[in-house]
Design goal:
Blueprint: H1 3-13, E1 25-26, H2 38-47, H3 62-72, E2 84-87, H4 90-100, E3 105-108, H5 114-123, E4 127-129, H6 139-145, E5 150-155, H7 167-175, E6 179-183, E7 204-209, E8 222-225, H8 228-237, H9 245-256, H10 258-281, E9 285-286, E10 293-297, H11 300-312, E11 315-316, E12 318-319, E13 323-327, H12 331-345
Parallel strand pairs: 1-11, 3-4, 3-5, 5-6, 6-7
Antiparallel strand pairs: 2-8, 7-8, 9-10, 10-13, 12-13
Helix pairs in contact: 3-9, 4-5, 9-10, 10-12, 11-12
């Protein structure tokens, strides 16, 4: 086999990640509808040290890890800095974990985050798919197959549906002894987390991001919380200096000013609930999303027609195997979404 054979094999078998083209109203990637606060941006530039830009900046830096530890701590549990690492987006963490545990049996539960499968193909990792039953895990089947030689990747809230899994389901997974990677990218929009259980369950990893609630998608910064042993092993296999000085500075700033972003999250949640109510009144089958998007279950022909209608009106949304996912936008953007869907029903 030559390098040419490998190149051609990748081009044939590995799916390239593609997002929807930018449109006047872009609701495909669940980005914040609010621009980064100008006042904070000015404060950020005033704090940037030109001398530090020429250096290899510690990743993670001590100050940011302390802030993350304080942010994730709860009344029942206080996080330690040795339980935290950061990544070039939550996606880099997911990619590294797939590579780190590729010799184990890895499970996902469609409909789920599409990048699990995209990254696995790129790494040559085999995924085992156990489809959800409605919006629930198939516990009866999973009882037969899960053990300590398994890894499960589960978004909670789920992506693309946005619903939360029941506590019974999460603790079932943890008690199988499998490594459980809980992807809490949308935690900030629901407040439900299992991060405090990393002390009790050494087989739990919680992954989060600054992309959504904190308006930092372009800066590519996420973090993971797990046992100190898991973090130590992970830090040995990830790339050094994997998150830039500027990205870490911005993450530190938003954590110190998080009340600004919490108020924005509150408005997004209000709009999400308004959208869900209106869509149900239009007789759409809508998931009980607690993320920053809504999800409409559709048959294939309806899904294609709705997707075309959105594009014809300059709106990008995410088309999935089971329906359409629509990011919560500004009030004006959400009104446009409702107007388009009223036309779909005509």
């Amino acid at each position: 086999m030559s390098f040419v054979d490998i190149v051609e094999s990748i081009r044939k078998d590995v799916e390239a990640y593609k997002s929807e083209k930018r449109t006047p109203v872009y609701l495909a990637l669940n980005e914040s509808p609010h621009p980064f606060p100008e006042g904070l941006l000015k404060e950020f530039f005033e704090k940037v040290d030109p001398a530090t830009l020429r250096t290899y900046f510690d990743s993670p830096c001590e100050e940011l890890v302390k802030q993350i530890a304080e942010y994730v701590s709860t009344e029942r549990w206080k996080a330690r800095v040795d339980q935290i690492s950061i990544g070039n987006g939550a996606d880099e963490i997911i990619y590294n974990l797939l590579n780190m545990f590729k010799k184990l049996r890895i499970f996902i539960f469609p409909p789920t985050y599409s990048c699990y499968e995209i990254f696995a193909r790129a790494l040559g990792v085999r995924l085992r798919k156990v489809p959800l039953v409605g919006e629930r895990l198939n516990l009866k089947f999973l009882k037969k197959v899960l053990s300590q030689d398994c890894v499960v990747f589960l978004p909670n809230p789920n992506n693309p549906t946005g619903h939360l899994f029941e506590e019974e389901e999460i603790f079932f997974l943890l008690k199988t002894g499998s490594l459980v990677v809980l992807d809490e990218a949308y935690y900030d929009f629901c407040g439900k987390s299992y991060v405090s259980f990393v002390e009790e369950f050494e087989n739990l990893i919680v992954v989060r991001t600054f992309s959504k609630a904190f308006c930092l998608a372009s800066q590519r910064i996420g973090y993971m919380v797990a046992s100190s042993k898991l973090i130590d092993a992970y830090d040995r296999i990830r790339l050094p200096y994997n998150v830039s000085y500027l990205s870490q500075m911005l993450a530190s700033l938003v954590l110190s000013k998080r009340d600004i972003f919490f108020e924005r999250v509150r408005r997004i949640v209000q709009e999400r609930e308004r959208l869900k109510e209106k869509l149900r009144r239009m007789n759409f089958k809508v998931s009980d999303s607690v993320a920053n998007f809504v999800f409409i279950y559709l048959e294939d022909d309806e899904k294609e027609r709705m997707h075309r209608l959105f594009l014809e009106n300059g709106v990008a949304v995410r088309k999935t195997e089971f329906g359409i996912r629509i990011g919560v936008g500004s009030s004006e953007q959400n009104e446009l979404v409702l107007k388009i869907l009223e036309g779909f029903r005509c």
